Amino acid sequence: MNLSPEDFASLFGIAGNALPAACRKFVEAADFHYEPLQGVERDRVILGVLRHLDSGKLTMVGPERAGIWESCWSDSLQKFTESGFDPERLVPDFIRPNQPIRLNRDYVIPRNPRFELDFLRVCRSWLFARFLGDAQSVYEFGCGSGFNLIALANQFPGKKLCGLDWSKSSYEMVAMFRSKLGLNISGRHFDFFAPDPQLKLEREAGVLTMCALEQVGARHDSFVQYLLDQRPAICVNMEPLAELYDDNNLVDYLALRFHRERGYLDGFLTLLRELEAKKRIEILETRRLEFGSIYHEGYSYVAWRPI
Ligand SMILES: C[S@@+](CC[C@H](N)C(=O)[O-])C[C@H]1O[C@@H](n2cnc3c(N)ncnc32)[C@H](O)[C@@H]1O
């Protein structure tokens, strides 16, 4: 089986011929063949997931992981520097090649070892085209290696970009993109748990998080309040959104268990829906891409704006 440009368009809720050119380019350049899993092979994957969930080895996200992230991005910074500033070295290790993945609420085996990364590239270019084309400046909070910002700079040259993270190695690495890659990107410290009110967003800014807010569990209130105060033109959060799983589906149920065991983002979409009911924000789009790693779907998104 294969995913065509029309399949991606359908995932995004648009007509096949409406797929933005940037997305189509990524779909056509990659191999999206995969094999569905059946019988004993499917059971083996499910058993592996269950064993992992029951292993007692899953760590919780939260404030105590600051040191772990620092060491992760300091390794990346070293690899990036030693490679002579090759942006390909910025692909994070948590996008693991050669794994079964989840697609359309089941597990499948991709032919292409980089299927997850290639799928992310298509979806990321879709998000950028759909929501961030008009923003003069875009801030990515929890930007990690900064590889999303480089993709955004390549898709929309000329935007003023800023990568923020609580890891010093992360924002120092991102700050190097200006001198080493010639991109209009700056880096800055930011902590979701204690947003700095002195950090003023530019007018009509875009705000982006990608698999980053997931790290705060239920403690997203301060960040949401910060955004309500700053009034960006648009916020796009591509994150695991627990509210979108169906716990009557086995594969979703296992993702939910993983999500809860790790303490991922809890109640964020619910809070946004409450704020919308109070007319404080407008939710522009919520979408599940029916795709993820073997353990969960990190690539659902919600786009919204303060009113
Ligand atoms: C899974 S990584 C995602 C990085 C990047 N957005 C990407 O898509 O590759 C999560 C990121 O969130 C950052 N992070 C976790 N907790 C944070 C906090 N309290 N404040 C700021 N950044 C945080 C980590 O340092 C890391 O860069």
Anisotropy-based shape:
globular
Return the CATH architecture.
3-Layer(aba) Sandwich
Can you tell me the number of structural domains? 1
The CATH H-level superfamily is Vaccinia Virus protein VP39
Instruction: Count the DSSP helices.
Output: 10
- The helix/strand series, from N terminus to C terminus, equals HHEHHEEHEHEHEEHEHHEEE
Average residue pLDDT: 96
Low-confidence stretches: none
Could you name the CATH topology? Rossmann fold
Specify the structural class: alpha/beta
Radius of gyration: 19 Å
Biggest sheet overview: 7 strands, mixed
Number of strands: 11
In terms of DSSP E residues, the strand content is 15-25%
What compounds are bound to the protein? S-adenosylmethionine
Strands of the widest sheet, in order across it, are 6-5-4-7-8-11-9
The percentage helix is 40-55%
Q: So what's the CATH class?
A: Alpha Beta
- CA(first)-CA(last) distance: 44 Å
